[in-house]
Amino acid sequence: MPKQVNWLEQMQAVVGPKGFTRSGDDMAPWLTDWRGRYTGAAAAMVSPATTQETSEILKIANDNGVAIVPQGGNSGMVGGATPDSSGDSVLLSLRRMNRIRAIQADDQLVVCDAGVILQNLHEALASDGQRFPLTLGGKGSATVGGLVSTNAGGTQVLRHGTMRSLVAGIEAVLPDGSILDGLSALKKDNRGYDLKQLFVGGEGTLGIVTAATLKTVPALVDRCVAWAAVDGTEAAYELFRFLNSRTPHALEGFEIIPATCLDSVLRHIPGTRSPLEGTYPWHVLIEIIRDQPDAEDPRTVAENLLAKAIEQNLIEDATLAASEQQAEDFWKIRDSIAEAERANGPALQHDISVPVPGMARFINEASPVIEARFPGTKVAAFGHMGDGNVHFHVKAPEDIKAQEWMDDLGKQITPLVHDLVIAAGGSISAEHGIGQNKRTELERISSDARLSMLRAIKMAIDPNNIMNPGKLVPLASSQSGS
Known about the structure:
Layout: H1 5-15, E1 20-21, H2 24-27, E2 44-46, H3 51-64, E3 68-71, E4 90-93, E5 100-104, E6 109-113, H4 118-126, E7 130-131, H5 144-149, H6 157-160, H7 163-166, E8 167-173, E9 179-182, H8 195-199, E10 208-215, E11 217-218, E12 222-230, H9 233-246, E13 251-258, H10 259-268, E14 282-290, H11 298-311, E15 317-320, H12 324-335, H13 337-343, E16 347-353, H14 359-373, E17 378-384, E18 389-395, H15 402-407, H16 410-423, H17 439-445, H18 448-461
Parallel strand pairs: 2-4, 3-4
Antiparallel strand pairs: 1-2, 5-6, 6-10, 7-11, 8-9, 8-10, 12-14, 12-15, 13-14, 16-18, 17-18
Helix pairs in contact: 1-3, 9-14, 10-13
């Protein structure tokens, strides 16, 4: 273990008493990940208030071989912001860096610190007639830096893309403390590699994102949220193609929900009710928006398109939200699925993607393979079908001991799911990242070329391996470093 007194005192001097703690009670909430799967320890938690302070902290860490674990809202899904159990590392919190530096409404850009909470960003932009077109269930705690570092997705990827598409510039501190100032939102920049993109999805393994320039879009004029019933995943995909070909610039949400997930929500989430009468095997949540005053009314668009879809036997029934409250109620069902599924019993959760045209086939073919190989399990696949990403949950059989099942069959189920995903040309992580949860699987299924490039980039930028070690990049044993 490194000598602590000297470098800890140096770090405390940089950030002051408000930005430094070694108290176990103060650090405890930040040492366990959001899902409660990983708990670590830290020598201290430092909370710089500026980019310069962050730079000085990393210089001290690099000089002393101290591991740094960056953390935003601690709302990640793969243990990417949780330190290991050694207690040697320093948890670096970006939460004090929470300033929105500039809203450039005319240019549809916003520059903000990494610690800005997503919901606060939404509210600040709304007052300027703009919006940041990415939202997710954890918007009240997720931070800009975390969203950048995990290449977050959410429910609006269909039209606007992931964070990789929404980041126009990056400010980052490298492991040696040098500062990369890339906040300028250049339309053209042909100086070689796109350095900012190394940090989007980099999970803090190459440095610390301290600020970002993000793209914004006009605030919504209005929207129409619809709920439709279909007889299967293939029908859902055909409905998506039908809608997207006719209103590609207004279709902002297309989520599939199986009857089993809807039933779980209705059973476990108070205040929810089914939008449709009757029983159907699959449901689709659709959002059509208008962000220009002279665009066609989204309700009229939805009514016309869904009427034609019914005529063409693409859907069995549909309803439109009659008010903004009812629209929120429809979305509450979708946003509550994960919570309802947890209440429904243990399950292995897989955040996977395959090419959009192959998603329906993947669900139809992979689900029975899993259920047949592991009797008593049930697959629930739901989510962002329009961008080829579903959450593929494998529910445990009833009356089992959850942890024993996870430790035994769970370790066989996940590799099989991932093998099926790779065979379909997909990815084992669509929007949650790799963290420590999927690192072993990433190494198992990745090509030598992919692993070689990941390792080469990591070791070139962070040769001492101080940045979030043990996350994302599966280093060879000879490269494990500090």
